[in-house]
Fold these 2 entries.
Entry 1:
Amino acid sequence: MSQLMRLSVFFGLVLCVFQVCAEDSFQVELVVFSQDMPSTELFDQTQTRIQWPDAVLDIDVLGSVAENAKMLKPVYDKLAVQLSYNVLMHAAWQQTLSANMTGDAVRIKDVSGEINGFVRIQRGEYLELILDLEFQPLPNQFYRLNEVRRIKFNEQHYFDHPKFGVVAIVKPL
């Protein structure tokens, strides 16, 4: 009986080790900005259309990233001095995710309340970044950026809308 108990404990520990090893940590980072570009497109969205998942985490619940470890600081600095862009937020966090899983949705909201939505990463055959963000510069005026894109680690990805944009990067830790 004690031999059976020892084997059970051993296999339980092995399973725990594999579970921990199967989870990887990532740094996810975004720079969100509005842009004052002329556009002939018509936008008639007057209310939010975000498709919220069941659970959403706030960034402050996740591991924070030190200012000197943010990879998009040069992008932020370039956008901040351009007259046609207004940087709305620069966010970075750490998140763990197992293979073949979709990560927790992370709420993205700037201080002024103009940006609202969420970001998720998904690991399957490919790595995907899922964005569902809205820019609300005026009451009852919404611009939505809703996209799922296959990405590569450590590459900057630009998500474009005529009224606002996002530069994103995901880095394995």
Entry 2:
Amino acid sequence: METPDRPVAYYDGACPVCAREVAFWRARPGGEAIAWVDVSAPDAAPGPGLTRAAALARMHVRLPDGRLVAGARAFAVIWGAMPGFRRLGRLVGHPLVAPLAEAGYRGFLAVRRLWRRPSRAASA
């Protein structure tokens, strides 16, 4: 597997909230420091160790060394790449805060399915 030179974020573009948030991050300074992959696209390939279903279920980031992080840890990586949000990334990644951030993210995931549109692969 070819290792990327920057983190790769896998997100669900069929989720309006997720798509809007990713559009916000992509447009910000530092957005180019992340490679963004919409796994709701029929041709999306999340790579080894990550199924499309898992990538659709929650945010994942593949680090340049090939490791995968998910959930709140993935957001910590993304925010860590963004000027003006690096402190937030460090805070969310802190061992004492990370479990609380993950609990909040899981709460979001519980209601997110109410907003999700059918994936483009299902409608193709």
